[in-house]
Amino acid sequence: MCGCMHSTQDQALHLEGDPSLPGAPTSTLAPRKMPKSISVSKQLASVKALRKGSDLEKAIATIALIFRNSSDPDGKLGKATAKNLLQTQFRNFTEGQETKPKYKDLLSELDEHTENKLDFEDFMILLLSITVTSELLQNIWSVKIMK
């Protein structure tokens, strides 16, 4: 998986919100954990830059918040946590793929990941890779967009 760092830092900077607020992160290397009791939708609503954000921006921010809420203090996901997120938060994209060679390859690659943890960029690549091979995406493509 890719080891680039710029996208993780750019996303973390964008998600900080108003830096004048108490408790705003001072480093993008150790993301601040919001209490688990605060829903992702409330966390998303608290990001000032997204108040007029597009659906796409909010979708990516939601992924970033779910990742951050599940990551360790170093901002990385363990393999077991990543697999759990796939099963609980991404199941509509993973259902029915268990026997497909490409899906098996992706999970095998996750198991063989040398660091035993995924950073945000690696997690995004995994999500996108699963998405493009999913049956759900094929169903989405077939949805009528015009009356």
SS summary, helix count: 8
Structural class by helix and strand composition = mainly alpha
Broad shape: flat
Helix content: 40-55%
Strand count:
2
Please characterize this protein's 3D structure.
Helices cover 54% and strands 3% of the residues. Helix 6 runs antiparallel to helix 7. The protein contains eight helices and two strands. With 147 residues, it is an all-alpha fold. It has a two-stranded antiparallel sheet. It is flat, with a radius of gyration of 16 Å. GO terms for molecular function: calcium ion binding; calcium-dependent protein binding; transition metal ion binding. One of its GO terms (cellular component) is cilium. This is Sentan, cilia apical structure protein.
Task: Provide the descriptors you would attach to this structure in a database record.
147 residues, mainly alpha, two-stranded antiparallel sheet, 8 helices, 2 strands, 54% helix, 3% strand, flat, disordered N terminus, EF-hand-dom_pair, calcium ion binding, EH_dom, Sentan, cilia apical structure protein
Topology:
Layout: H1 6-15, H2 40-45, H3 55-70, E1 77-78, H4 79-89, H5 91-94, H6 101-112, E2 117-118, H7 120-133, H8 135-141
Biased composition (Polar residues): 1-11
GO molecular function: calcium ion binding; calcium-dependent protein binding; transition metal ion binding
Region (Disordered): 1-35
Summarize the entry for a quick read.
This protein has helices spanning 6-15, 40-45, 55-70, 79-89, 91-94, 101-112, 120-133, 135-141, and strands spanning 77-78, 117-118. By secondary structure, the protein is mostly helical.
